Amino acid sequence: MQIIRQCLTRLGTLAAHPTAFLIVAIYAACWFAFSPDTLDWHGVTTLLVWCMTLLIQRAEHRDTQAIHAKLDELLSADQRARTAVAHVDDKEPEEIERFRKQERADHGGDDRGRDYRRPP
């Protein structure tokens, strides 16, 4: 099961790479070259959906990487930060969820409703 999770995570990362767009373009060119009579509106729509999916994945990946870079900077600047928290983004999503639940349990429960703009 762990191998499948790692493969899916890697596949998501690869879908955000510019090469993924090239693969869709090559697929479309081959489709047009070898079977142009089947490349109708449904085919064009399919290709557009693939392109939009890749665009959304790329935008989310870029945003996530930017947030991680900013958080890494904040964690490295704060001497009280723990290294376990600084490297949590290297884990699988399920492991991160377990880590967050454990942190909430260790620090007095669920703090999702807390207003962080005001001191406690």
Any overview of this molecule?
The protein is an all-alpha fold and 120 residues long. It has one domain (2-106). The protein is built from five helices and no strands. It has helices at residues 2-15, 18-34, 41-77, 83-86, 93-106. α2 packs antiparallel against α3. The chain is elongated and about 65 Å long. The two termini are 42 Å apart. The model has no long low-confidence stretch (mean pLDDT 83).
Keywords:
about 120 residues, mainly alpha, 5 helices, elongated
Gap between N and C termini? 42 Å
- The level of helicity is over 70%
Report low-confidence residues grouped into runs of 5 or more: none
Strand coverage percent: under 5%
Compact description:
The chain has 120 residues and is mainly α. The chain contains five helices and no strands. It has one domain.
How does the SSE layout of this entry go?
Elements: H1 2-15, H2 18-34, H3 41-77, H4 83-86, H5 93-106
